[in-house]
């Protein structure tokens, strides 16, 4: 069984994430794509992430109409930092030895791979599916190979329709009263307004 894993903060989930998951699924014939919201990402120290309840609720609405998409709470359910190597190990244990795991990520995230916790181990545990993202066109797998020998043959590059959408920008748009309609699924939009998320960019609501 070929399984895609799409990790992220999803604060909030947007069409960029959904298109990445769908295109990766199709290109690599994945049977399912599991979205894994992170508990507290180690690389985002300056900003407090919205409560997992909110991020999970938005993800649930966003993936509801795609039978291949699901959510795992492995990361939000355990305390502390969620390193991707640990997440993948946990998921592999849960899914069993027959599951072949593919970690889906944008080229912005892939460029940072050498700074991740135990990247060589991660590459032994799963393959990567890298999708293009606007603003990262200078990304070079060749260059990454020099920093992290062996990475090239573990990465599948998938070209997707580019969507210039960032969660950071969506939060800023809500805070300044701009529309985010057509950038996130309508159910996600409704949830954000209903719960007053992102109105104050410095102080996210603690819990649902
Ligand atoms: P933030 O601005 O808070 O960092 P984000 O939009 O980058 O949010 P993340 O939750 O950080 O979203 O991203 C999770 C994963 O999805 C990462 O691997 C990222 O590269 C990928 N991704 C996010 N948005 C896009 C997009 N528009 N196109 C392609 N990949 C994307
Ligand atoms: Mg990001």
| CATH class call | Alpha Beta
- Using the alpha-carbon principal axes, give the shape: globular
User: What order do the strands of the largest sheet run in, or round the barrel if closed?
Assistant: 3-2-1-4-5-6
Describe the biggest sheet? 6 strands, parallel
What proportion of the residues form beta strands (DSSP E)?
A: 15-25%
Share of helical residues: 25-40%
Low-confidence stretches: none
CATH level-two architecture:
3-Layer(aba) Sandwich
**Order of secondary-structure elements:** EHEHEHEHHEHEHH
Ligand list: adenosine-5'-triphosphate, magnesium ion
Please identify the oligomeric state. Answer: single chain
Number of helices: 8
Mean pLDDT value: 92
Give the total of beta strands.
Answer: 6
Give descriptors for this structure.
binds adenosine-5'-triphosphate; 8 helices; 6-stranded parallel sheet; 208 residues; alpha/beta
Molecular structure report:
Strands 3-2-1-4-5-6 form a 6-stranded parallel sheet, sandwiched between helices. With 208 residues, it is an alpha/beta fold. The chain contains 8 helices and 6 strands. Helices cover 36% and strands 15% of the residues. It has helices spanning 15-27, 52-63, 84-95, 107-111, 119-125, 141-147, 167-175, 186-194; strands at 2-8, 32-37, 69-71, 100-106, 127-131, 155-158. Strand 1 (2-8), helix 1 and strand 2 (32-37) form a beta-alpha-beta unit. The mean pLDDT is 92. The protein has one domain: Rossmann fold (3-Layer(aba) Sandwich), CATH 3.40.50.620. The structure holds adenosine-5'-triphosphate and magnesium ion (MG).
